[in-house]
Amino acid sequence: MEIYSYKICRDLLYSSIHDVGGRSWGYVIEGYPRTQAQAVDFENQASLLFERLDLALLIDCTEQFCCDSIKKRAEVAKENNDVRPDDDAEVVKIRLAMFKQNTLPMLKYFDDKGKLRVVRNKKSVDGDMDIDKIFVEVTSAIDNTIFIEDQESGKSLTSSKDGSTDEKDRKDL
């Protein structure tokens, strides 16, 4: 597995967003930005590529869950002869340390701007839950943040998941 430079990833991301243009309600970009400098750059580019950056999501999970998930992925990869160098236990520790050093300040940056939403609940760390439940939490956070103004016009991720619209559902009542 080859690790690509930040510049290559950045250029590919911005090029893809530019190519789609106004044909999208928005974008869910996973794993980027990872540093505060990237966040500032992304916001600057966002103002050129689309109207604004509305929301940053953190799917909160325990370090143990992260390590266990990566370990399971590595075991499957090993069975398929597709070993990733970044799945090594020592590399995982370094990645978690880098997350704390670089990504947590970036998350604070978005939190200070009122743009950070954290997927978790009081009883447990929700990032450790089933992926389908995480999907529901994420789409709810997006709906409640971004589409709150547009729900009158029938736009929401919850309704679009099953191909319906809120407007159509209201007419059927």
Summarize the structure.
The chain is mainly alpha-helical and 173 residues long. Helix content is 55%, strand content 5%.
Per-chain topology:
Elements: H1 6-20, H2 36-49, E1 56-59, H3 63-79, H4 89-112, E2 116-119, H5 131-145, H6 157-161, H7 166-171
Parallel strand pairs: 1-2
Helix pairs in contact: 2-4
Region (Disordered): 153-173
Pfam families: ADK (PF00406)
Family: Belongs to the adenylate kinase family.
Question: What would the keywords be for this entry?
Answer:
mainly alpha, Rossmann fold, two-stranded parallel sheet, nucleotide-binding, P-loop_NTPase
Explain this structure to me?
There is one protein chain. The protein has one domain (6-150): Rossmann fold (3-Layer(aba) Sandwich). α2 (36-49) crosses α4 (89-112). A two-stranded parallel sheet has the order 1-2. Residues 121-126 and 149-173 have low confidence and may be disordered. Helices cover 55% and strands 5% of the residues. It has helices at 6-20, 36-49, 63-79, 89-112, 131-145, 157-161, 166-171, and strands at 56-59, 116-119. The relative contact order is 0.11. The protein contains seven helices and two strands. With 173 residues, the chain is mainly α. Residues 153-173 are annotated as: Disordered. It comes from Ascaris lumbricoides (Giant roundworm). Residues 163-173 have a biased composition (Basic and acidic residues).
